Target: D-lactate dehydrogenase (Cytochrome)
Amino acid sequence: MVSMVQRQGDVIKELEAVFKDRLFTEPHILSLYSHDASSEVGVKPMAVIQPVSVDEVVKIVKLAIDYGFKIIPVGSSTSLSGNATPKLENTVIVSLERMNSIIEISDIDWYARVQPGIKDDELNLELMSYGLQWPVDPASSKTATVGGVISNGGGGMRGAKYGPASHWILGLEAVIGTGDVIRIGCRTVKCREGYNLVQTFIGSEGTLGIITEATLRLAPLPESFVGLMARFRDAESLVNAVIRVKRDKLWPMVTEFIDYMIAQVLGLEPMYYLWIGIDTYSGSEQQILSKLNNDVSLSGGEIIDKAFTWQEFSKILEPRRMLYSATLKAAFNDYGTDAFVAFEDIAVPTSKLPEAVREIQTLGQKYNVKMVIGGHIGDGNLHPTVWARRSDKDEMERIMKFFEDVGKLAIRLNGTVSAEHGIGVQKKGLLREAISSRNDGNSDYVINLMKNIKRVFDPYGIFNPGKIFD
Amino acid sequence: MVSMVQRQGDVIKELEAVFKDRLFTEPHILSLYSHDASSEVGVKPMAVIQPVSVDEVVKIVKLAIDYGFKIIPVGSSTSLSGNATPKLENTVIVSLERMNSIIEISDIDWYARVQPGIKDDELNLELMSYGLQWPVDPASSKTATVGGVISNGGGGMRGAKYGPASHWILGLEAVIGTGDVIRIGCRTVKCREGYNLVQTFIGSEGTLGIITEATLRLAPLPESFVGLMARFRDAESLVNAVIRVKRDKLWPMVTEFIDYMIAQVLGLEPMYYLWIGIDTYSGSEQQILSKLNNDVSLSGGEIIDKAFTWQEFSKILEPRRMLYSATLKAAFNDYGTDAFVAFEDIAVPTSKLPEAVREIQTLGQKYNVKMVIGGHIGDGNLHPTVWARRSDKDEMERIMKFFEDVGKLAIRLNGTVSAEHGIGVQKKGLLREAISSRNDGNSDYVINLMKNIKRVFDPYGIFNPGKIFD
Model:
């Protein structure tokens, strides 16, 4: 034990020599980095470093190889599955928050090169002046960093049409577990240079290396837009409206919802709220709106607001972005700092949505849990969220059973146990169940492929231990 | 030598017992499978098998492990880089042409499950009756199979907006080099179940396993469409029109071109032809058309045809689909069966297109080669194609130098040496150069990552040897 402490002291000294006032070992700062936005409980890391260059990142990785410490690369730690929560004390948190520049925006080529620490909204604000967007838009876009979104493979609000993060990343620079810097991918949408290493990084939750630069694919902001906010008496009517829209072959960029409980917390009438936003060219707005009108009213809903630009729509969408904070507020109202919140994140094929929503409500009653539900309903992505008093063993058990059962429900309905939050710590069991369900009851050989890929990039097991399958 | 022939006899006997009349060893059939649509010269494989089930595919792989023979999985062998050309005699071609069913189409969930041997156009014809499309559309879509398109990571005509194959594949079933069947990915667009193994398969050119089923993401067919065919006196004017369209923030689904020589072969006036197709909703057509009109005429072009549905547009696009066959026709007119055709496939950022086209024409003159050029100009993807008399060593050398120099040009312009055709045999050198150019003059560690990933899926080195980096 003494020699380990001794050794840890040596590491800190070496790191201090390089990083000076960008190395933190003060207990209150270590506490801040001992967890992420999920309720997962972590341990204090041994240090937090804020590098400012790829060379500094290489130095950290080489020291980790020499001294055997672990690294968790983080952006804003907005993970809701415990992806960024340290579980081992010999961990150094590498926070990319100071590597947050935009290196280049090309308004003809529709790409941007950025450092990983830039926040999603900051980037999109800048892109707006070029008439462009990076359409990867998690609800946490004000806080989430681009590097975090990439590592997490996030989807978000514009994913139903534009696809998840993986469709919007052209190239990466990253430091892998050997200390080598690799520059992979291209600046063009088409890029067929051997195996797609960029895609292997996307959604790898910081387990393969540290992303130090990204080349992002951009899209033009829609020339015109038709957006609405509607409300419904029950979840099933809302889901039916979504299905009608798909049957009409309208292809919304955004289809979001929240339930009556969240609405209440936000000061809205306690009903189910739906947002649909369709990107289009000028001249088509009225006919799209009349179809949407029809779809909503035939499903028993009522349109309560409309928008005809993306900017206007972003404003009326604001309550949906509050799902996370409103849930936390409800949980803290109930239990104060003793609250534990579990964020589910399943997706099911659209046709299974009515059954999924019904069953989730039944499970909520069965386990007698406090639950809200919302999500990206256009791509079948639901976020049922439950909370309990940490100190109440029975209630904690009930929300954990609910969490597991919702995952199993997703599997039964041919869906996924993780749509965009990733596996982190909290979904490791469900990941195995999902893979088993498709592979004749055996998850081992698929998980082993992943473990072997991990070894290819991180042969010494430095990065984010204890996550996904570890 | 005798024992190898003996052993080969034993293999054939074992295969015959299982596959009966779906095993072929007749020399003229082996000849057919000794090459692909590129001019790459291959060797006769020892046998061709047409399995009809995943179990049969497993049997073949297990025999390959036991007997040490190699496997090349093929669809219609439309590769233009030699991806499907056998280079070793102890190769069994596994042709998926009989595994060509559509298993399921879900018109609400917008996915289809298919076997790999179905042809791209056959699938899209069926989907049309649902108002849906699989928007991965290589020029060879009449012949190319879905499995081949996936293995090749193809892009095609609708890629500038809709992205390449990798955006349209949700899940795969494949037999890997251990003989295990893996089912990876989901039926939903969002799917974050650990590392993205599906993406590793896409574009892997048959080197990691044999795809036996695919779950494809679908999109609605556009409600309305504005398409045009225009012609220009020179390439630069055409490219400028494309840049104007992007500056206008129009986001075409299709932007294609051919040059004056191909036009001539097709019986059109010898000019440069551009096709632009924009998917939209009804009501916006006239204002889109007026913008396009402006962009074309300000660039010195002339609109010669228009279309207002995708189906109509497909018809006027037909000459562009003939790029491959028209080039072959020109080459065979010149040299008969002695013709060797080299298909380049670079992409550069849009802003570099004028320079790229100019330099390619200069290189064509420098090496005094017969050249045509066309491609998916909306995503910067150019296909300069040259031919020579195989028996003319000097001319062959000149086209090879041209081929190499065009690849180097792409690297210099921050583009890629392979946009959608893959590496196969013909781009192995250029792949290393492209990777070196971004990685401080060293391609080894990136290539080694790929070699190690290959080992994860194919530990015995069974699949498609001699390709990409091998």
Q: What stands out?
A: Residues 326-438 of chain B form a domain with the Alpha-Beta Plaits fold (CATH 3.30.70.2740).
